Amino acid sequence: MKMKLKILKESKEEESFNTRYQGLYDLIGVHPGSLDLFISHFADYDPMVQKERRDMLADTFGNDIESLTDADIPRTNARGYTDALTKVKAALYAGHSHWYKQVFGEATADFVIEAKVLAYILDLKKNLERIGYRTITAKEFEELPAKDKNIIYEKHFLDDYLDSFIDDHVKMSSMNNTGFLDNPGVGAGLYGQMKDWYMSTAGADFFKMKLKEYIGSLPQREV
Of 103, 101, 111, whose CA–CA distance to 198 is shortest? Predict the structure, then answer.
């Protein structure tokens, strides 16, 4: 029996989702919760996501980051850090692709974006496999807890709406144009919520391309 999900929001049914982003869900008009994993990877970092990302970047770039000197970074203010170099190193360990582009070049920034996308897709894939998405029936779906239903909504949302989501929402800057993370006068994408603003501005097309590339590796329905 084919399982047809209502991704677009059609009711005010109470569900388990990241309520901090109720406004985003209302704006996009999709089922609340159908972007929670995306949010945890790219907007409101889950602590485990943040730790795994930092560990990966430290393993890959740690020696390069630690060897940086003031002469290796562009002029920037310290903004809450003891000095500018400490700020830039912290941003690199946090995975801010803007600073990888500034310090190591665009190819390295693209590598970091792709690594983030792959981590997100692997997380989504792991959860879909845990739920048994390939063979789940409509009855079994209805019996899932809301958080697990949201994982399936998210997969279907990416399948059906990725292009318009990136173009119409991820690329949309906040109304506050005072600047964000050395992005003066531009504002952060996803209505100001993206932690790594470069991925929603100059890097958005590459971000979308990699999402589309890796979505194909997600489990597919067999029934």
Answer: 101
Q: At what angle do helices 97-104 and 84-94 cross, to 10 degrees?
A: 120
- What is the reported pTM? 0.86
Contact predicate 136/148, CB 8 Å: no
Token pair recorded at residue 122: 């692997």
What are the pLDDT digits (tens) for 11-33?
A: 444 456 667 778 888 888 888 88
Q: Are 30 and 8 in contact (CB under 8 A)?
A: yes
Range name among 27-36, 149-158, 179-188 with the lowest pLDDT average: 179-188
Three-state SS string over 50-72 comes to HHHHHHHHHHHHHHHHHCCCHHH
- pLDDT score, position 17: 65
Neighbours of 219 (CB within 10 A): 15
Q: What count of other Cβ atoms lies within 10 Å of the Cβ of residue 2? A: 7
Cα distance between residue 219 and residue 223, in whole Å = 12
Q: Cα–Cα–Cα angle for 210, 57, 96, nearest 5°?
A: 65
How far is residue 40's CA from residue 37's CA, in Å, rounded to a whole number? 5
